[in-house]
Design brief:
Length: 187
């Protein structure tokens, strides 16, 4: 598989991570280098691992049972997290200050990492069906997701200033729209 094609796939897969990182960083009062690295590392790692899991899962009969509803899982996770962000934007009416509400930590980070990388799992399944070696594409996919996440985090605060107090609302809507897009793409 040539570099241009792998890069194009990686860029397409990284758009969810980019959009989520824009939404998160626009809703936070400040985002530290540590938070940026944590978010980018998780998104990059999950984008790297999911194609591997998908590729190896084709060797397993379980894939026939998972594939019919994987898009529903991604949709549900994104709607739940996005809905929570929207609710909190109305509830607080201010930017996140409390470390407990930090979406770059804990279960929120895990859920977002899984939800934004479900498509990468499908790519792994597809590459296995095409008998393409997986390690090289998985590395490129992970690196591009890492870079796009950092870029999204850097752009997010600018967008947050444009939309003001309702940046959490914007971030939540972005997550829900990504979930809807994922669901529609697979139906």
């Amino acid at each position: 598989m040539n570099l241009f094609l792998v890069f194009a796939i990686a860029l397409a897969l990284a758009m969810d991570a980019f959009a989520v990182s824009v939404g998160i960083s626009s809703s936070l009062e400040t985002i530290t280098k540590r938070q940026t690295l944590r978010l980018a590392s998780h998104f990059g790692f999950f984008q790297f691992m999911m194609p591997l899991v998908g590729w190896y899962a084709t060797q397993n009969i379980l894939v026939r049972y998972i594939e019919p509803f994987d898009h529903w899982v991604a949709f549900s996770l994104l709607v739940i997290v996005g809905g929570k962000m929207i609710y909190e934007s109305f509830k607080r009416g201010k930017k996140i200050k409390n470390i407990k509400a930090d979406p770059t930590k804990g279960i929120s980070l895990f859920v977002l990492s899984v939800a934004t990388s479900i498509d990468a799992l499908a790519v792994g399944l597809s590459l296995a069906a095409l008998h393409v070696a997986i390690l090289y594409p998985a590395i490129v996919i992970g690196l591009v997701a890492f870079i796009m996440t950092v870029l999204g985090v850097k752009i997010g605060p600018f967008l947050g200033r444009l939309v003001g107090k309702r940046a959490g609302l914007l971030g939540g809507l972005i997550l829900i729209l990504i979930g809807v897009k994922t669901l529609l793409d697979h139906l």
